[in-house]
Amino acid sequence: MMRTAFDRRAVLAGIAAFGAGIALKIPEGRAEAATVVVKYDWLISNGQIGDVVALKRGLFEAEGLAVEFSPGGPNSATVPPVVTGQAALGQFSDSAQLLLARASGVPVKIIACGYRSGPFAFYSLPKAPIRTVKDMIGKRIGIQPTARFVLDAILAQNKIDPSQLDITNIGFDMTPLMTGQVDAVTGWITNTQALAVIGPDRIDLMMKDTGLPSYSNVYFATDTALAQNAEVLAKFLRAVAKGWAWTHEHPKEAVDLTVDAYPQLDRATEQATIGLVLSLSFDAGTKSKGWGSFDPDAIAEQVRIYDAIGQFQGSTPKPEDCYSTAILEMTEADRPKLG
To answer: Which positions carry the signal peptide feature in this UniProt record (predicted)?
Structure first.
């Protein structure tokens, strides 16, 4: 099943689970255990290929870590295992999820970002092309309910009234576009198999071209972990960055290694998608500051936009409470600079 880029309801459900556990406390020193568990927001896929490479090529072991991946899924909450210390750190699909969590009082911070921009995109056809956000005016936009707030943010950033669009709730397939029910559908650009039904005339409007800042594959940790176990987090990030660098240099081999480890993935599809995955992971910013880096100003801009459209349940988080650059700084010399 294809997921949306921003499953807001899943984030809030996870926050509720965190809040409901009256006996839960942020543990001290849990991340120093021999085994480091990483809680992912979704199933292991091409977005985690560098992580898998780091595991299978012994890069975590070289840092003295025994790393275990804990995949997510439709009914899996990402926040509670990290906050309760069952996992040393987690990965959200998008930076917006971290902001929602922080606004709801969950003490977590972004420590690194795997994708330079969210892979979420709008797809249209030449008969009603949508190449810019302004092209959405007067069009029928099909979007998953869990991603609607992202469209609202994009429209607000571009000063477009939602009433100027015909917005329809859709599911996870591309059928409404192909049958002419809508002029655009949404989903992840890395979901090559699902997008294949649209055909070669597909027009993509990527998140990076909408004016809304976004990061994806966002690694996060608790405030306490950052204060008490920064060295463990730095070892993890150092190894995973090298895993992504090896993937950059050996894409075909990295795909084969990942599919061998997770045979539910389709080898041909993943080989066809790896170039796109790498384009999301490396750019001029990573060439300058290394894989995993992010711009604090972009996080602050996200906070401003989501606050403007009333998305935060609770107080608006301070941007500086939503991220920490400490782990990036600790690993600056070791994170490969490629772009």
So the answer is: none
Half-sphere exposure of 316 (CA within 13 A, CB side): 13
Residue 235 backbone dihedrals phi, psi, to 5 degrees: -60, -45
pLDDT at 1: 32
Q: Report the residue count for the chain.
A: 339
The total of other beta-carbon atoms located within 10 Å of residue 19's CB is 15
* Burial readout 59-87 (b: 16 or more C-beta within 10 A, e: otherwise): bbeebebebebbebeeebbbbbbbbbbeb
pLDDT digits (tens, 9 = 90+) for 230-250: 999 999 999 999 999 999 999
Q: At what angle do helices 251-261 and 230-249 cross, to 10 degrees?
A: 120
Quote the radius of gyration of the chain (alpha carbons, Å).
19
Distance, in Å, from the CA atom of 138 to the CA atom of 203, rounded to the nearest integer, reads 17
Residue whose C-alpha is closest to residue 214's, from 291, 79, 120 = 120
Span 139-160, pLDDT tens digits: 999 999 989 999 999 999 999 9
Beta carbons of 278 and 249 less than 8 angstroms apart: no
HSE (side-chain half, CA atoms, 13 Å) at 122? 29
Q: How far apart are CA 210 and CA 84, in angstroms?
A: 36
How would you class 318 by CB atoms within 10 Å of its CB: exposed for 0-12, middle for 13-18, buried for 19 or more?
Answer: exposed
